[in-house]
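2024-03-11 09:14:02 INFO worker-7 job=invfold-0412 stage=load source=structure_tokens
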């Protein structure tokens, strides 16, 4: 399977490319008051208003640094109560490369975090551990995402 590599702080993470719609450069986001810190804002993507989650803020509690390689990864997700596909933006740092790995290469961690059930297996690449983010679980952990068509 093809996976996308990126960083959250100094830690490398990955997601499956099959759910990735596009990788967009950083744009100005519309801030919404009274939302969680990890909610970076909304932006207009080809006529769709897309919520953007700052993965650095969500996972490490520190906002993404604005680098030339900081990107918004646009992914498809399914609403909780409908079968309608929606678009979600994930802000991450150093979004620069893809890699092919077999599903068997991912090892489930010994410890599971109840507060981060979207963190999946770990894969090794050039003596680096890369944490997998499960895009099927992530939207269900973010209560304010739209889930109806």
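2024-03-11 09:14:09 INFO worker-7 stage=emit residues=149
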């Amino acid at each position: 399977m093809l996976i996308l590599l990126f960083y959250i702080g100094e830690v490398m993470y990955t997601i499956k490319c099959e759910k990735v719609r596009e990788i967009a450069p950083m744009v100005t986001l519309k801030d919404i008051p009274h939302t969680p810190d990890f909610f970076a804002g909304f932006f207009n993507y080809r006529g769709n208003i897309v919520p953007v989650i700052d993965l650095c803020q969500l996972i490490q509690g520190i906002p993404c640094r604005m680098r030339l390689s900081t990107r918004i990864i646009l992914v498809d997700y399914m609403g909780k109560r409908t079968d309608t596909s929606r678009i979600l933006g994930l802000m991450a740092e150093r979004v620069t490369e893809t890699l092919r790995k077999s599903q068997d290469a991912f090892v489930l961690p010994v410890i599971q975090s109840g507060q981060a059930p979207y963190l999946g297996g770990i894969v090794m690449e050039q003596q680096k551990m890369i944490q997998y983010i499960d895009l099927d679980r992530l939207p269900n952990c973010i209560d304010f995402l739209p889930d109806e068509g």
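2024-03-11 09:14:09 INFO worker-7 stage=report msg="The helical segments are 55-60."
2024-03-11 09:14:10 INFO worker-7 job finished
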